[in-house]
């Protein structure tokens, strides 16, 4: 076993993608399958402020949320062997992108706009960024965000796949990458 293999296997895995594509649920499933710790950055931020994300936005402002988001992601990415789901806006910050891409394996969960649209009612109440926007404005945000998500190591198209299928696919591709690296 050489050092390169150990390094790749030990790298943390980070899930990115637009709000609602499944980063939190898939990340948790993958962590369970790999017997690794799961960290959801939004949940960590909520613990720090002892309030839900919507309340942090309304009472303290988005800037405070984004600063804490950056601080926590940079800290957690540097630790090895974690499975980390970051919020959909995290990769807009260059420092976060650079840190995640250099220290971790970044998976982009890609869900088409057509499929995403069907999920909106499930997520809208807990995503302050979506509130007060028309569907056309949300679509514009979705399109504008795609460029930052193109910064990844691996992409999985998640349309029409169950959470179990997505998690299994990710675990299989990781195991293959680890094997090829050995
Ligand atoms: N592959 C999937 N098929 C159906 N529903 C899904 C799938 N992945 C996630 N969901 C659902 O979509 C919603 C948003 O998932 P979540 O993991 O919170 O997304 P994110 O963390 O990317 O915002 C949840 O209700 C979750 O159960
Ligand atoms: O895209 C965004 O700007 C945000 C996404 C959310 O996380 P999810 O992507 O897990 O929904 C959460 O961090 C916050 O509401 C802001
Ligand atoms: Mg999430």
Automatic annotation (TrEMBL):
Substrate binds at residues 42, 66, 88, 145. GO terms for cellular component: cytosol. It comes from the Bacteria. It catalyses: shikimate + ATP = 3-phosphoshikimate + ADP + H(+). SUPFAM superfamilies: P-loop containing nucleoside triphosphate hydrolases. Binds 1 Mg(2+) ion per subunit. Catalyzes the specific phosphorylation of the 3-hydroxyl group of shikimic acid using ATP as a cosubstrate. This is Shikimate kinase. It comes from Mesobacillus persicus.
